[in-house]
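Below is a filled-in request sheet from our internal design queue. Each sheet records the structural input a requester submitted and the sequence that came back. We keep these sheets so that new team members can see what a complete request looks like end to end.

REQUESTER: design group, bay 2
PRIORITY: normal
MODE: inverse folding
CHAIN LENGTH: 216
BACKBONE (tokenized):
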């Protein structure tokens, strides 16, 4: 358990001490509400009602909506990471194969948790002033941590000498960002399968560009 996890558990000790079934009911209710609505439109009264508790009790565990929202981000990131980073994860030493494996596993995880994908996309594009600066900084920190933690077994010697692997990861993130922006501008519901098909095409192109010839 990392220092961040310990700090979160200490800060939310009242909530973390609840029986798992009750905690999950509140988390599920909050993810559904934030997934269906933007931050401003998400009602804590609806969250409490869906979870089967009073609004006053919800604010006993979280002092305000922002605190609940940020707790959800940390909790869900940890949960998804635990499910995605399994025994086979660190056996993969190819940069692009690891990305594909993680994406396929995440697809299975997201299919098990309704509204988690919608919640994640809204969190990636925060608009309300209460959370925008916090979430923008949080997202960048997660990208930095992801690279140093999850790619530690990757053979970076497969990349051309003039290519920075971190820059390749940034390119993939920018491509995904552009794709999501386009879907949102067209008011299209995000299709995870279609997005992953695009990602695999990006990976093939970037692998051909960035790997040494013998590893393409």
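RETURNED SEQUENCE:
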């Amino acid at each position: 358990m990392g220092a961040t996890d310990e700090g979160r558990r200490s800060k939310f000790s009242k909530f973390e001490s609840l029986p798992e079934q009750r905690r999950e009911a509140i988390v599920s209710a909050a993810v559904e509400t934030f997934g269906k609505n933007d931050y401003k439109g998400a009602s804590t009264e609806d969250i409490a009602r869906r979870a089967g508790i009073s609004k006053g009790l919800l604010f006993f565990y979280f002092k305000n909506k922002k605190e609940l929202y940020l707790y959800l981000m940390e909790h869900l990131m940890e949960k998804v990471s635990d499910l995605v980073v399994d025994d086979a994860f660190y056996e993969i030493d190819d940069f692009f194969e690891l990305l594909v494996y993680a994406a396929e596993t995440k697809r299975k995880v997201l299919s098990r948790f309704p509204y988690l994908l919608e919640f994640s996309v809204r969190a990636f594009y925060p608009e309300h002033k209460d959370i925008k600066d916090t979430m923008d900084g949080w997202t960048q920190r997660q990208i930095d941590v992801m690279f140093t933690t999850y790619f530690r077994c990757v053979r970076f010697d497969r990349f051309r000498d003039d290519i920075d692997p971190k820059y390749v990861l940034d390119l993939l993130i920018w491509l995904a960002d552009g794709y999501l922006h386009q879907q949102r501008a067209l008011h299209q519901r995000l299709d995870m399968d279609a997005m992953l098909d695009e990602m695999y095409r990006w990976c093939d192109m970037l692998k051909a560009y960035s790997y040494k010839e013998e590893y393409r």
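SHEET NOTES:
- The chain has eleven helices and no strands.
- The mean pLDDT is 87.
FILED BY: M.R.
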